[in-house]
Amino acid sequence: MSSNKTPFELRFDIFNEAKSVLCEQYYSEREDALSRHQIETDAGNKPEFPELPSYPSFSEIRDMAQRINKFVSDGK
Question: How large is the C-alpha radius of gyration of the chain?
Fold first, then answer.
C-alpha cells in the first residue's frame, strides 16, 4: 500500500492523532471525576468539587506527536 501524502500531511496526521489521544484521555478523566462527585453527592455526602484535568496544551500535543513519530519511525 503506497501513500501519496507529503511529509507535511503525514506530520499533520500524527499531530491530529496525538491530539485525539490526549483529548480522549482528558474527557475520560473529566467524566470520571464528575461522576465520582455526583455519586458522593447522591449518597448524601457533601464532597468538594473535584479538581478537573487541564485540557491538553499545544506543547503536550506536540510532545505526544513526537513520541508517536519516534515509535513509528523506529520501525521496531
Answer: 18
